[in-house]
Amino acid sequence: MSTVVLAVAGGHKTQSIVDACQSDESKKVLVVGYTISSQEELARRIHQGRVRTHAEVTGWFSFLMQHLIRPYLPLLYPGTHLTGLNFDGDPGRYATGLARFMDHDGRAYKLHIAKLAYEVMKASQGAAMDRLGRIYEEIFIDEVQDLGGWDLEIIEALLTSPIQVTMVGDLRQALLDTEARDPKNSGFRGEKLINWFLAMENKNLLKIEHRPTTYRCNQAIAKFSDTIFEPTLGYQATQSASPESHSHSGIFTVSEELAAQYQATFNALCLRHSVSSGRALQLPFLNFGVAKGKTAPHVLIYPTQTIRTFLATRTPLDGRAACGLYIAVTRAQHSVAFVTNQPVQGLTDWHDDVRE
Amino acid sequence: MIKRVTIRGYRIFRDLTVTPDPEVNIIVGDNESGKSTLLEAVALGLTAHVDGRWAGEELNPYWFNQELVRDYFAGYANGCTEPPPEIEIELYLDSTASELQRMRGVHNRLGEDCPGVKFRISLDPDYSAEFDDYMSSPGRPDILPTEYFSVSWRDFGDAPMQRQVKGLGVSFIDSRTLRSKAGVDYHTRQILSSFLEPKQRAAISVAYRMSRHDMTTSALTDLNERIATEGESLHDRQIGLTMDQSARASWESDVIPQVGDTPFAMAGQGQQAAIKVALAMRRSSTVTSFVLIEEPETHLSYSSLQRLVGRIKKLAGAQQLFITTHSSFVLNRLGLDKLLLLRGNQICRITDLSQDTVGYFKHLSGYDSLRLVLANRLVLVEGPSDEMVFRRGYYDARQVYPEDAGIDVVSMNGLSYRRALELCALLDRDAVVIRDNDNIAPAELVDDVSDLLSEQRHLIAGDPAAGTTLEPQLIRANGVAAMSKILSLRAQDDPMTWMHNHKSEGALRVLMTGEDVKMPQYLSDAIALLS
Q: Is residue B111 part of a domain?
């Protein structure tokens, strides 16, 4: 039975794939990562010190092109060849047929690539999945929360194939969206993907496994991160398995005036929503999206207005705002600080004379 | 294994499709019919290499089908704008192995979903302007400028092939290869090196380098000292000799196989051929899936050939074999049903030959079945004396001997007519069978094999009233006195008794005589059929 493992940030998601690949090296395995940095990380860790592992690492788009589109494309559009990926191109709203999917050089538009893969797969009448099933016994998909739209149709086809599919991800980190425009499966975007997994579970195609243990954040941060989302979404409370060892731990506020000093004192990782936030401060900020996958002992966050409201009212956030904040907070092992001049109830305001 | 080969525009083949046997394929045909070209094409599709070099670096205008090239230039002269000729070789594979399933897709001419390889040589679009310039330049020869062509080697999934795929290994055994300077031809070297583990190769390479270095420091030292003292006038810096340590001086060209105490290249050609086959056999089937053998009979005596064919038979099954041959022995022993007959750009495979008949020819392995297979028009006769008399009759009627008219007269020598006709029928050969009547009415004899006869295949026998065999029929046709004269017999000899005791001598005299010879009616009928 195929499985989706929904783990919290710092839940050793990538490590579980690495371990699975190394436990049976004769198994023909494909590992699909989403971002290039995650593919590199997966490949490095899986092949570390191993000569003969059969695991192959690829990206989601490469996977669609290599195994679904390219071999059977002529069945949908006779005589056409796929030459590559058009990453930024847009065929326009009214393009139809082949022109909607491919540019004049035979490159597939990233924008509609999953739809194209789905159409080709359908045209192959099962051949594409049969071929795949003879090449790989198991397929791992990392960061599954980043998939949506037509991607889900392809995953459903995988789930009904004899291939064992293991997906790992954290719906609370759904910041990337592969196809924002196509309305297909729009009800399952972002953290609502859980409903799609539940539907698959109802069809007996998938088993959902929750892993609420974090090996990164301490309990205080874990608890704080749980409050970001609506309790009705049904996430289990995060358990910290991190050995607490730092003298500066917990959730803090820091005034704008002291932010630079705070950063210097704790060498904190500075995070912001986007380039437009925190411009007044001369700090080495990273955007939330880019920080994904990173770990830091201490984190300093420049809050957006939405986050400020959240801090004041503690009303849960939703959508991308929730995901962004969740990613930012859960980078930290020991402490999280928000840059704000307003006192926040329940958080300690940091001064240079505060010495724990 | 390969389930279909299509070759378009390569050498003699304009458009050829072969559906080979999964185990053994014996390719026969006249000289120049394309037997070796077929093996070459298979090897090209599997490796995209020619003698160890990437096909793109070896492009040759004469790889293109010359008919197509001629048509193209003729068309161009008449203002036709057809694209220039291309070469395309497709190998359709039948395998569920995971390595080969990666090569699966529908990018082939038939749009069939299976693993496979497509090798193609076509005009490189980047050079189309240069090509147009070439074509329109005055006084250019009618030769394709292959500099402007490029090679593409992709699988049926449309992915470029990078290297030799596991599961598609090929051993090419060419007994005809002349001794090369290196002692071992490229294909044999390939087979040999596949026995070595990478570590062993590295160890040999290091030892070899050290021994060359030793040579510089020992034997060459005295010489270098002498040059140093005497050669100061040569150049302002010291000159000396050293062993070449560059990649060219690799052990691979200096290490050669040895048979007993004899270097491989010095061994007999027959032995070389036997060793090449033995080596190819030892390669495990994971390394080699296809074995291509060119004319294994070359340089081999009958008994060595028998041993070799025995080995080849063992190869079959684990590997798919393609063998070209001119030897009926090889054909009979490996099974007539494995025959691929090349003739005039067409290929014909016998798939419906009864196992019974296949076994029959296996046991009669000395029989020249290849003549039946290769002949244009066949006349099958009982034995050598019938053959000679028939030739005489044919010559008298047509003023040429049958062989000069493209007719092959073959003695059956006891081979069953039915078996021979079965083979002819499957190959759709024109044939006339001339047989003794054994005191049976000809109509009855015809009836026995009527299922194998047609407008092009006839069975003819003499009227039993005129005698059961050739000799009485001849005497009946000519009369005793004339027959005595034809045979130059003494007065006391009875032609009937004498001919019975001297069958082939009598036939020879009929063939050579200056006297007029009347043919028995059934032989005249047969000759008439061959108009």
A: yes
